[in-house]
């Protein structure tokens, strides 16, 4: 009887010690994992809210998203007309490259062409996909004072002054440019008719 009591006592102590050890381990691991999660201010910085109605027709503004400059352009009917007619001069006319896959909303041919949820508002990362310079907004067709490297059929859009990459008004890269991809489109949604949340 005494041996059975001792065995029961030992079993109880083993189970109790194991349970306490598991609680102690959980008490150590949970705060450690919690410390690796992003802080509230970091999560807030991961998203940018912007009212596109503040951008006048034909105007470009630059905002910040995750520390990166982002172009927001209010394209007029005339600028939207420049999107068509030069697909053969583009590296990725249908926005099918891997850089475009990030934007899940690009689910129709029209959205891939205009690279926007609403065609009149283009929102792209303001960084040339060659080496990261900020391209200059030149919405009208090429002029001689921009240099001899301007493609004759370039309809206007962006020109990177660092190494001469050209993009159209939908920020799609022109053939012959050193940039390998279109300007990047980031995920965004409209929370109202004019308010977008980027990220």
Automatic annotation (TrEMBL):
At the top level of its lineage, which domain of life is listed? Bacteria
**Keyword Electron transport (UniProt):** yes
Question: What would be an example GO MF term here?
Answer: oxidoreductase activity
Segments forming domain Rieske: 114-197
Q: Give the cofactor binding note.
A: Binds 1 [2Fe-2S] cluster per subunit.
Protein EC: 7.1.1.8
The UniProt transmembrane annotation reads: 12-33
Q: What class of enzyme is it?
A: translocase
What are the entry keywords?
2Fe-2S, Disulfide bond, Electron transport, Iron, Iron-sulfur, Membrane, Metal-binding, Oxidoreductase, Translocase, Transmembrane, Transmembrane helix, Transport
Cofactor list: [2Fe-2S] cluster
User: Which residues lie in coiled coils?
Assistant: none
Reactions catalysed, as given in the entry? a quinol + 2 Fe(III)-[cytochrome c](out) = a quinone + 2 Fe(II)-[cytochrome c](out) + 2 H(+)(out)
Keyword Transport applies: yes
What more is known?
The Rieske protein is a high potential 2Fe-2S protein.
Give the similarity note: Belongs to the Rieske iron-sulfur protein family.
Its subunit composition reads: The main subunits of complex b-c1 are: cytochrome b, cytochrome c1 and the Rieske protein.
Task: Name the NCBIfam families for this protein.
Answer: Rieske_proteo, TAT_signal_seq
Protein name, as recorded: Ubiquinol-cytochrome c reductase iron-sulfur subunit
């Amino acid at each position: 009887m005494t041996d059975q009591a001792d065995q029961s006592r030992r079993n109880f102590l083993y189970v109790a010690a194991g349970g306490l050890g598991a609680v102690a381990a959980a008490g150590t691991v949970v705060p450690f994992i919690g410390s690796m999660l992003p802080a509230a201010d970091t999560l807030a910085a991961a998203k940018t809210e912007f009212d596109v109605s503040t951008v006048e027709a034909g105007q470009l503004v630059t905002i910040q998203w995750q520390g990166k400059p982002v172009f927001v352009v209010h394209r007029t009917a005339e600028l939207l007309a420049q999107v068509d007619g030069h697909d053969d001069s583009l590296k990725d006319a249908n926005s099918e490259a891997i850089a475009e896959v990030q934007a899940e909303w690009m689910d129709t041919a029209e959205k891939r062409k205009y690279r926007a949820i609403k065609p009149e508002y283009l929102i792209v990362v303001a960084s040339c996909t060659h080496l990261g310079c900020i391209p200059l907004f030149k919405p009208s067709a090429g002029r001689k004072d921009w240099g001899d490297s301007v493609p004759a059929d370039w309809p206007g859009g962006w020109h990177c002054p660092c190494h001469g990459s050209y993009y159209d008004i939908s920020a799609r890269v022109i053939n012959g440019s050193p940039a390998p991809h279109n300007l990047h489109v980031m995920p965004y949604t409209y929370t109202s008719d004019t308010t977008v949340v980027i990220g």
